[in-house]
């Protein structure tokens, strides 16, 4: 039986992927940053572990515990991450560092550690959760944009460096997915941005008041799970998977439009 480790399973994509894959007879080891979420996963019947992308020892501990059980790791899904909204002029450098600690540096640490195991066993798949915002940039999302562009650079480079191995590195470029991502992003906007003294004050206020739970082209989280299952089952998975129409449309626009014309489209989002 193949196994997979998934980070960020407290809710949303991580949780739905864990549940879906278990139904497909994949051995799933979900992880979460909050102990209450770890307990919830355990109550659901999973062998779940605490893992915080900023706590490098927790990454090593999870790998060690899984190797005790299975002696191998077939697939590692770096799903954990969050969004920090706000105009770049309103984002303090320390807040930008926090965004990178989880979305980039933690992802790199986990990738580096599991890669040691996969190189020894001679095979494996590493799935990196990027975003449509790793392909194009949208205003007032600069910290998140930058983190996902960094993920793209790391993933593309690692894929080339592993070219002559049986280890696959895959990027998932998700668009809008049903999850708590936007809800949590609003909290980060409120907590980490000086809204009252910003020239974007009115825009921020509208964002915080908005009751919209989704945007056009939003898909349920299980659609990501289906792609992960496809990757697990494939002997030769693609290096990149677009998920949602928004990703296809904007990815296509990035390839064919001039920068100036693309800017005119993106500024409306």
Give a topology summary.
Blueprint: E1 3-6, H1 12-23, E2 27-32, H2 35-43, E3 49-50, H3 56-70, E4 75-78, H4 93-121, E5 124-129, H5 142-161, E6 167-174, H6 181-192, H7 201-209, H8 222-233, E7 240-243, H9 245-256, H10 259-266
Parallel strand pairs: 1-2, 1-4, 2-3, 4-5, 5-6, 6-7
Helix pairs in contact: 1-8, 3-4, 4-5
Give a nutshell description of this structure.
This protein is an alpha/beta fold.
Instruction: Write the CATH homologous superfamily.
Output: NAD(P)-binding Rossmann-like Domain
- Rounded to an integer in angstroms, the radius of gyration calculated over CA atoms is 18 Å
The poorly predicted ranges are none
Summed up, the helix count is 10
Biggest β-sheet: strands ordered side by side in the sheet: 3-2-1-4-5-6-7
CATH architecture: 3-Layer(aba) Sandwich
Q: Structural class per helix/strand content? A: alpha/beta
- What does the main sheet amount to? 7 strands, parallel
Portion of residues in beta strands equals: 5-15%
Number of strands: 7
Query: What's the end-to-end separation, in Å?
Result: 44 Å
Please state the overall shape, judged from the principal axes of the Cα atoms: globular
- The helix-strand sequence is EHEHEHEHEHEHHHEHH
Tell me the helix content: 40-55%
């Amino acid at each position: 039986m193949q196994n997979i480790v998934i980070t960020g399973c407290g809710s949303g994509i991580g949780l739905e992927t864990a549940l879906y894959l278990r139904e497909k007879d994949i051995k799933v080891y979900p992880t979460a940053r909050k102990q209450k979420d770890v307990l919830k996963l355990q109550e659901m019947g999973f062998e779940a572990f605490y893992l915080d992308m900023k706590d490098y020892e927790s990454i090593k501990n999870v790998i060690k515990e899984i190797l005790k059980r299975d002696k191998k790791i077939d697939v590692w899904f770096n799903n954990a991450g969050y969004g920090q909204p706000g105009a770049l002029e309103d984002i303090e450098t320390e807040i930008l560092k926090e965004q990178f600690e989880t979305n980039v540096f933690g992802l790199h640490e986990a990738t580096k550690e599991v890669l040691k195991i996969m190189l020894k066993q001679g095979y494996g798949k590493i799935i990196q959760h990027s975003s449509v915002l790793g392909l194009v940039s949208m205003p007032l999302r600069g910290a998140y944009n930058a983190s996902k562009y960094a993920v793209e650079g790391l993933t593309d480079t690692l894929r080339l460096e592993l070219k002559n191995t049986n280890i696959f590195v895959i990027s998932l470029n998700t668009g809008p997915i049903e999850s708590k991502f936007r809800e949590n992003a609003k909290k980060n906007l409120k907590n980490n941005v000086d809204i009252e003294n910003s020239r974007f004050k009115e825009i921020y206020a509208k964002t915080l008041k908005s009751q919209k739970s989704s945007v056009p082209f939003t898909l349920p989280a299980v659609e990501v799970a289906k792609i992960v299952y496809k990757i697990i089952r494939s002997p030769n998975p693609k290096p990149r998977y677009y998920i949602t129409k928004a990703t296809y449309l904007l990815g296509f626009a990035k390839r064919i439009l001039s920068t100036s014309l693309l800017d005119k489209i993106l500024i409306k989002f």
